[in-house]
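Recap quiz, item 2
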Amino acid sequence: MTGSAASQAPASSGGGGTPARHVAIIMDGNGRWAKKRFLPRLAGHRQGMEAVRRTITAAGELGLEALTLYAFSSENWRRPAGEVADLMGLLRHYLRREIDALDRNNVRLRLIGEWRRFEPDLVEQLDAACRRLERNDGLTVALALNYGGQDELVRAARALAEEAKAGGLDPAAIDAQAIEDRLDTKGLPPLDLLIRTSGETRLSNFLLWQAAYAELLFTDTLWPDFDRAALERALECFGRRERRFGGL
Ligand code: FPP
């Protein structure tokens, strides 16, 4: 162990000692977790919900500013209707059960994706949860619901085109910032670390723009087994990465 500044940087620091501010997770492996135990897939999703609870608590305690979780992708509609209904039911249950604890823990809730296309009662429940937590100033949890990275970029492009057509925007003035300002993640810190559980090594249409300079970490841990120790290990790994953002 040397006495260098880098060796004294906190576990969540990356390369030059900058702590991770924003972590995103592709929560994969619920089905395989259940299958290994000869249980229905819903049992895996239920344990996945417990992992969501543990991870949000740990992320707050570890000082992250934002945690973005891929809870339902725009492609998840392709699953059997029964499983889609189970996932919606779990989300309703999670919001009812966890809202007080989220509030006590000073968590703010953001939603990204086309979640307003969900059933009206669920949209109202999600809206109410955001309102209830809006004055908190601790960890921001961004739930990706009916989210797809390509869809998010299409919507941003459409918004820019509409503004240009209305005459309020010069197409030559469109730069990266103009696009970022029209993404669902507007206002969140830049993405530092993107984790995918369960051994798959794909982005699966998650945060395609935001991942441009994020560190990627793939772990074999199945999502229902993810916990505080797993998050700490991921942040330690992030701390050892050297981030150059295209420089030397
Ligand atoms: C991937 O596992 C997980 C999902 C499609 C949904 C994520 C849902 C949860 C973590 C539970 C509920 C969340 C909240 C916020 C209440 P998979 O089914 O694709 O697993 P497999 O690849 O092993 O089949």
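The first strand starts at residue 13 and ends at 14.
The mean pLDDT is 93.
End of item.
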